Known about the structure:
The protein is an alpha+beta fold. The protein has helices spanning 75-84, 110-126, 134-145, 156-163, 197-218, 229-235, 244-265, 271-289, 294-305, 331-340, and strands at residues 5-16, 27-43, 47-52, 57-62, 93-100, 166-169, 176-178, 185-190, 310-313, 321-326, 345-349.
Amino acid sequence: MASPLFEKAAARICFFGDHQDYLGLPVIAATINRYIHMEATPIDEPILHIDLLDEGKSEKITLQESDKPLSARDYFRSAIRVLAREGIELTQGYSVKIWGDIPIQAGLSSSSALVVAWIRLLLKMAVPQRQFSPKKIAHWSYTAEVLEFNEPGGLMDQYTIALGGLLYIDTRSGNYQRLEAVWDSLVVVDSGIEKDTLHMLAIAKSSALEALALVKEKQPGFQLEKATPADYEQTVNELPKQLQPYWYAALHNHHITQKALAELKSPTTDLSRIAHWMNAHQRILQNDIKNTPKAMIDLMQLALEQGAKGMKIVGSGGGGCFVVLTTKDKEQQLINALKKAGVKDAFPVNITSPSHA
């Protein structure tokens, strides 16, 4: 009997550049030690029998399915179709079990981890003798999750998860730089507040892109990737009032990402400066993009009182998780206080090593 195949993919945290990747601006993000796991066992039927153990759901996909329209967010089939266009197709049926410890729909990219792990597993099942670069897997994952469904997100999630580690990613090209930092303590807080990822992304993206288009009408040579906070002052009056906060966020968060990159590339990274830029990023997210509910702002204030140095919401926002940079001696005190305040969960995390590199 053939041995089962195993695969996994990690959760993602964005430290700098939330709501920037869909503008083609760079991000600084990392994988953390929370995972989606998959196990595939060969079976005699020409089907994929998929059991989602954490949700108590199952899915059955025949190997010869027609190319009918996909249901919303049917990433299992979209990934199969993306690979089929590359000439990679399954000829063997499998029973697949999927489980994990990533909070679902909470800003840690559980869906992207699922897609990356699924594409890795499909490749093992279909063409075990071939090797593929992490960047190729990232591109296929982005295509399967975002482009196939015309969703509003950028490529940060899929590229971060497929490449692994702490990364500075050019979201125009998919090129990246590996970064290193000795974090004292990182804590992820799951607020338990439900979020609407696609709605939040759609509003922020359309507003920022509309602002950019209006600026380019007046200044055809304007290059967003080279813009500075000074450019905001020179262009803001060309925009209607309702677009100005999104334009402020685009230019100033880009500036913050560059400042954080310089600090992380320094041979003597100062984590107090990283915390400063995290807090600056968060203020823009909550005041301009308005993606942080009042209840989460109150929880962040509590974390600050319990020894947090820097913090920010992760993912598109509207609820879900935030990440806290603190010190090891304050870690448990902070976690206990937040749990007492009623958060769904709070747990320490580590940045993982590059995966499948």
